[in-house]
Amino acid sequence: MHPEEINRIHRGYLRNERKRTIYVILTQLIIFVVFLLLWEWLARIGVINVLLFSYPSKVWALFWQQLADGSILPHIGMTVIETIIGFILGTLLGTLIAIVIWWSPFLSRVLDPYLVVANSMPKVALGPLLIVGLGPGLLSIIAMACAISVIITTITIYTSFKEVNENYIKVVRTLGGNKWQIFMLVILPATIPSIVSTLKVNVGLSWVGVIVGEFLVSKQGLGYLIIYGFQVFNFTLVMVSVAIIAVVATLMYQGVAILERKLTNQFK
Amino acid sequence: MTQLSSSPAKIELCSVTHLYVTSTRAFMAIKGIDLRVEEGEFICLVGPSGCGKTTILSLIAGLERPTAGKVLIENQEVVGTSPRVGYMLQQDYLFNWRSIEENIFLGLDIQGIRNQETEEYALHLLEEMELADFRKSYPHQLSGGMRQRVALVRTLSCQPEILLLDEPFSALDYQTKLKLEDLIVATLRRHKKTAILVTHDLSEAIAMGDRLFILARNPGRINREIIIPERIREPLPFHARNQEGFTDLFNQVWKEMEGLTDASRGD
Ligand SMILES: Nc1ncnc2c1ncn2[C@@H]1O[C@H](COP(=O)(O)OP(=O)(O)OP(=O)(O)O)[C@@H](O)[C@H]1O
Ligand SMILES: [Mg+2]
């Protein structure tokens, strides 16, 4: 077989691959457009209730209007900031607790049943308690976001700490390493991939916490807009908020996914 | 206690018994082991799988505390790991997230002795193992034998006084293995280091060691001690294999081992 023939086969393969990718993207676009058009059309001919489900052009118009007069930006900003803070705090705190219980096997056994209960508990049920304790404001919302992700982070990371092969620890011990060195040289680097993958889960969890928190107490934010729209029967506003949440949450998730690829590159 | 010589032995095991205790059982891995190793000696442990060879090394390395008896290094009881003892585990356990270079500097980092001089020494060892080209590579890019050599460099680069080697050559091709045997024996002799080597290869044990211990299992114990004659001990392992009497000694050890496996099959 000649080199140019091999080359030709490879080029043909690439061309086919490209074609297939284009088809996939086209189909995805078509599904989206058809969905919007169908929604619009059904709303206009009165098959679905416009008052409850609104329709795309109205949602889009409201979005532009709110964007133009600048009234929506503070809401987006507030929710995003709350989510990011809740996400970072939840992850850090969860990791910290995991480190502490890894350090002390006694403490880990003592805390075990509490962790199980805390993990099974639907954290949003704590909402009212948080509000009473921390006041009806920013603090409670962030606490809610944090509470939702902290326990699962602790459990996931602690489990991956324990799964590190005992013999790597032996290597460090025979070279004279202490517990701190075992942690820094083996446990932490070996578990970076699983720590980063909990980040991805935590982004989603923090959104849940923040939106629920805003439902309960806030005067600003996308969750507040949803509840407000619901109360004044402005479902177009609800749809606008939901759409923005979908877009921003996806962006944030993708950001963490990129971070994950960067951090775990050297492990594979 | 010290009947044989007045100076303290480098390593001494006094009727050491070790049990592995888990929630399901307490298993006696070794029983009543007495062992004396002088400074600069090269000791080989051979015996069937599961007879407690790795256990003995772990006890000397301070990874485990003996259930009964004492482990002494220069008359001091071993209570934990120490930089004086280098232990190469049965598998390489290189750190995937560190380059080869960073792997062999691990001990230097841990002991806080990383400087230009020690780094150069480690890299020099890497060169002797014919791996200098791979210093920037990562472990997964290396073959099993190469990884084993890197693990050996990692252990040697801290310059421990006592070297414990758990089947260091098991993943090597024959040629590399013979070369490494010579290299290690020469290096250890030059620096007057004490070493204990675990191996399944009887000819390797005879060629490298000054003394040989044949262990039996259930429970692990020393079955026989064989002192390698001067003539075979003197030359480096490669030439030792060609010395007169090597084959006889090999056959003797082989018979001894056969007896063990027969005996354990009997019960
Ligand atoms: N951590 C442990 N927990 C319980 N039992 C163990 C443990 N480590 C070893 N053993 C048992 O102790 C015995 C001796 O084990 P050891 O690893 O010392 O054998 P070995 O001579 O090194 O064998 P091999 O030649 O296969 O490496 C074995 O029967 C094993 O089942
Ligand atoms: Mg073993």
Notable features of this structure?
heterodimer, A: 268 residues, mainly alpha, MetI-like fold, 2 domains, 11 helices, 0% strand, flat, B: 267 residues, alpha/beta, Rossmann fold, 6-stranded mixed sheet, 4-stranded antiparallel sheet, 10 helices, globular, binds adenosine-5'-triphosphate, binds magnesium ion
Write a structural description.
The complex is a heterodimer of chains A (268) and B (267). Chain A has helices spanning 3-44, 50-53, 56-68, 73-103, 105-120, 127-134, 138-163, 166-174, 179-217, 222-231, 235-264. Chain A has 268 residues and is an all-alpha fold. Chain A folds into two domains: 3-48; 56-266, Orthogonal Bundle (MetI-like fold), CATH 1.10.3720.10. With 267 residues, chain B is an alpha/beta fold. Chain B is built from ten helices and ten strands. Chain B has a six-stranded mixed β-sheet with strand order 6-7-8-3-9-10, with helices on both faces. Chain B is globular and about 50 Å long. The mean pLDDT of chain B is 87.
Mean pLDDT of chain A: 89
Count of the domains of chain B = 1
Return the domain count of chain A: 2
What is the CATH architecture assignment of the largest domain in chain A? Orthogonal Bundle
Q: Please name the CATH architecture of chain B.
A: 3-Layer(aba) Sandwich
Strand content of chain B: 15-25%
Helix-residue proportion of chain B: 25-40%
Radius of gyration of chain B: 19 Å
